[in-house]
Amino acid sequence: DGGITQSPKYLFRKEGQNVTLSCEQNLNHDAMYWYRQDPGQGLRLIYYSQIVNDFQKGDIAEGYSVSREKKESFPLTVTSAQKNPTAFYLCASSIDHRTNSNEQFFGPGTRLTVL
Amino acid sequence: AQKVTQAQTEISVVEKEDVTLDCVYETRDTTYYLFWYKQPPSGELVFLIRRNSFDEQNEISGRYSWNFQKSTSSFNFTITASQVVDSAVYFCALITLINYGGSQGNLIFGKGTKLSVKP
């Protein structure tokens, strides 16, 4: 089945620790995205990548880092510099970022809780 | 500025009622795309519809219909004869083609409307 997988579904982290969230897609999409969702809020863009080995900051990139070494993978690291990391994180992909009308397909999300 | 406003935070209806979810957007661009996504309790966002700014025809898909009005910058979503399975958070979103501070091609989401359909 084609789709986007995120792991783990639930993640707990102690303050001061870095943690990496996985996102994999087998849709052969060029573009991938990371969003953060807080209760009662819409989704806010953290980082996006239009193509392998390239990525751009979104609206709330501070305290996060990404890599795009392979087309199908776009891991997100939440660093200790992120002051309020507890949130629901959603990964998405689309065929081509330059064709703006393309819909984005979303993964099931990872819920991160900082203890 | 670009913005999407979903003024209804939560709506509760009884099964078989019709319900309309409002979406108002702001953009300076003349070419843009509007989307609706559904987020069930499982968390994954499900794409429902995409509409470009040049197509003001209303669309119907089964029990779902969308009313796009450029004059009022609105893109409202109606569910007819609601069902319990319609219970979810619904997001309206906007993509524009002009680069406002790097936001070109990025989805701008409203805060969502939580719909509860009771049996």
Describe the oligomeric state of these chains in a short phrase: heterodimer
Characterize the biggest β-sheet of chain A.
7 strands, mixed
Mean pLDDT of chain A comes to 91
Distance between the termini of chain A: 35 Å
Fold and architecture overview:
The complex is a heterodimer of chains A (115) and B (119). Chain A is mainly β. Chain A is built from no helices and eleven strands. Chain A is 0% helix and 49% strand. In chain A, the strands form two sheets. In chain A, strands 2, 4, 5, 6, 9, 10 and 11 form a seven-stranded mixed β-sheet that branches. Chain A has a four-stranded antiparallel β-sheet with strand order 1-3-8-7, with no helix packed on it. The mean pLDDT of chain A is 91. In chain B, β5 (32-39) and β6 (46-52) form a beta hairpin. Chain B is globular, with a radius of gyration of 14 Å. The chains are: A mainly beta (115), B mainly beta (119). Chains A and B meet through β5, β9 and β10 of A and β5, β6 and β10 of B.
Features:
heterodimer, A: 115 residues, mainly beta, 7-stranded mixed sheet, 4-stranded antiparallel sheet, globular, B: 119 residues, 6-stranded mixed sheet, 12 strands, 0% helix, 51% strand
Short description:
The complex is a heterodimer of chains A (115) and B (119). Chain A is mainly β and 115 residues long. Chain A is built from no helices and eleven strands.
